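// run 5 | inverse folding | seed 20
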């Protein structure tokens, strides 16, 4: 009698996520600096990158907790084309079980004074209503941010965000 072989599924959608791999790209003309960050669920593996050079990308891991996954937000400051201080925000939710709750991202950008005044609990609510892609443009500062989250890496969500200027 032949024995049955059990194969483990490699479909990322059926495996619990244990965190997020986050890549941030600075497509502005100046260095961006970390302003603030919040961990709602999980924590950054080492530390959030303190700066992002113009034209460069940084990648970090945000480890999820077993029950709720990876849920956090970061704010980076920089300047726009006319030297005005601006801010770019990225928030993501990579739940432990994507079959019960999908991956989500939320972004916004604008004058530093406005971004500094954002309430993280309000951001958390916007994030809960968001989807796997998010885009924002602030016409006054001509700043832009685009983000997407997917499950292309087994057991980890991949978050990609680009901070840029409108030309």
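// decoded
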């Amino acid at each position: 009698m032949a024995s049955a072989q059990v194969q483990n599924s490699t479909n990322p959608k059926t495996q619990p996520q244990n965190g997020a791999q986050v890549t941030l790209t600075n497509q502005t003309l100046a260095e961006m600096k970390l302003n603030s960050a919040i961990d709602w669920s999980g924590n950054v593996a080492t530390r959030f990158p303190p700066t992002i050079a113009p034209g460069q990308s940084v990648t970090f891991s945000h480890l999820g907790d077993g029950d709720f996954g990876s849920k956090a937000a970061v704010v980076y400051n920089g300047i726009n084309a006319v030297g005005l201080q601006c801010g770019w925000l990225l928030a993501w939710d990579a739940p432990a079980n994507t079959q019960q709750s999908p991956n989500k991202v939320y972004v916004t950008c604008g004058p530093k004074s406005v971004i500094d005044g954002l309430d993280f609990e309000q951001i958390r609510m916007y994030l809960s209503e968001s989807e796997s892609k998010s885009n924002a443009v602030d016409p006054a500062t001509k700043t832009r941010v685009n983000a997407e989250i997917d499950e292309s890496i087994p057991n980890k969500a991949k978050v990609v965000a680009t901070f840029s200027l409108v030309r």
